[in-house]
Amino acid sequence: MVQLLNNRSNSGDRVRRRAEGRRQEILRAAARVFRRRGFDTAGMREIAEEADLSPGNLYHYFNGKHEILYFCQDRALDTMLNALDRSGTCAGTVADRLTFVLTAHVRCILDDMEGAAAHLAVDALPGELRGHIVAKRDRYESGVRKLVEEGGQNGEFQVREPVIITRAILGSLNWTAQWFDPEGRKAPGDVAEIIAAYLIRGLKGDTRA
Amino acid sequence: MVQLLNNRSNSGDRVRRRAEGRRQEILRAAARVFRRRGFDTAGMREIAEEADLSPGNLYHYFNGKHEILYFCQDRALDTMLNALDRSGTCAGTVADRLTFVLTAHVRCILDDMEGAAAHLAVDALPGELRGHIVAKRDRYESGVRKLVEEGGQNGEFQVREPVIITRAILGSLNWTAQWFDPEGRKAPGDVAEIIAAYLIRGLKGDTRA
DNA sequence: TTAATAATTGAACCATCGTTCAATTCTACA
DNA sequence: TGTAGAATTGAACGATGGTTCAATTATTAA
Question: Of A125, A192, B175, B187, whose CA is between 20 and 30 Å from A168?
């Protein structure tokens, strides 16, 4: 009896893992479509087709299109917040740590396998879902800004408007989704390094002045 | 008779000027709605309401939503190309000229009265309309890149990847539409100056290296 | 093997949106 | 003043897209 219950619990776990796997598949398919089309013109039928399901099946796993977007952005932000956290354990200068964060940001956005959606506007999300994403995004932005300010405090950077400069930096990174060509000559990692190096040089200032 | 014909010609001019004025009103209203909502979720009813017209009336002046977007972007790009052209007559360094162009770019995007739409993707435009806008956008981007390269050639800048760096710059500028708060403490001109200065510092490099 | 439940399908439903249209009003001209 | 044509209205139309649903299939457990 106990064994049977244990067996049921084990198969329950397997069923749950299969359902969770299906959710992740749908999220990856959705992120690819969101990146290709933008949220507003990405359709549920196209997402379903991309995930090899029927449109109605999406609603077995999610409460609707907004929730799919929510989880896509949540996942992308987790990836970025993770990189931000790991930068704290990096040896090296603040510039090194910021490089780590900025390159991870670009990789996340341009990732063809995962097809991040973090660069998409949160306006499309309703009420409470939006609140969660905005809070996470603000934590990430705040973390990046703190690195910028920390560099200012230890003399590596000269920045008088960290809020605006941090947004200028993030804007540059996010806009890569608009122009990056997966078939192009540069890999995402290369683009990430080039842009990060340039953006950080702008923080270091012109020592000749 | 000749006088009557002349009078008719004069009133014909007035009628045409009034029609053209109406078109400009509609374009400004549309640009505000496009900026607020994005092209895809901006509706013709909302544009009509913003312009104090009925929805059907829009079609008296334009062939459809796509054409309205086309003219909005065309106008914004004309403003930016104009700034680029005028920068050629500027006295001063390449950095001065680039500052002029970048600040004009940001002002254009954040302009509350004109509500530019140049940062919007061109994907929404069909065939030939898109071709025209892409060509103009490419001319503008090419012009900005030539300034970046010119600074590299005369020693003001150190840039090894001008294509990517130019896109990083334009991305930073375009993204300001996402976060700029018209009710905020900074005016568009201030934001433009701060961001342009930072982006150009990144071009100048780290002379300590 | 059977029954219960989950997963899946794909068409239908309803709301929305771009666009058209018949009717009305306005303007310009004779 | 009357007429022709432009401008305008706002509802209707057809297409689209998010979502629901009845029916079917698959899976799991007894």
Answer: A125
Q: Smallest CA–CA separation between B198 and chain A, in Å?
A: 5
For helices A65-87 and A94-110, angle between their N-to-C axes, nearest 10 degrees: 160
Instruction: Give the amino acid at B91.
Output: A
In a domain, B69, yes or no: yes
Q: Does residue A64 approach strand D to less than 7 Å at its CB? A: yes
Measure, in angstroms, how far nucleotide C2 C1' is from residue A4 CA: 19
User: What number is the ipTM of this complex?
Assistant: 0.88
Tens of pLDDT, residue by residue over B110-164, are: 886 666 776 777 778 888 889 999 999 999 999 999 999 999 999 999 999 999 9
How far apart CA B76 and CA B86 sit, in angstroms, is 15
Q: Considering only B2-6, B42-46, B65-69, which range has the smallest mean pLDDT? A: B2-6
Is A18 (CB) below 7 Å from strand D?
yes
Give the number of domains in chain A.
Answer: 1
Tokens of B24: 């400009």
Q: Is residue A85 in some structural domain? A: yes
Give the B-side interface with A, CB within 8 Å.
38, 40-41, 121, 123, 161, 164-165, 167-176, 178-179, 186, 191, 194-195, 198-208
Residue A105 lies in a domain: yes
SS3 of A95, please? helix
> Nearest chain B Cα to A165, which residue?
B195
What's the pLDDT tens digit per position in B172-183? 999 999 899 888
What pLDDT, on the 0 to 100 scale, is given for residue B3?
Answer: 39
Q: What is the CATH number of the domain that holds A74?
A: 1.10.357.10
Distance between B200 CA and the closest CA of chain A, angstroms: 7
Q: Which residues of chain A have pLDDT under 70?
A: 1-11, 112-115, 118, 205-209
List Cβ neighbours of B154 (8 Å cut-off, separation of 6 or more): B94
Domain that holds residue B27: 2-204
Whether B122 maps to a domain, the answer reads yes
At A201, which amino acid appears? R
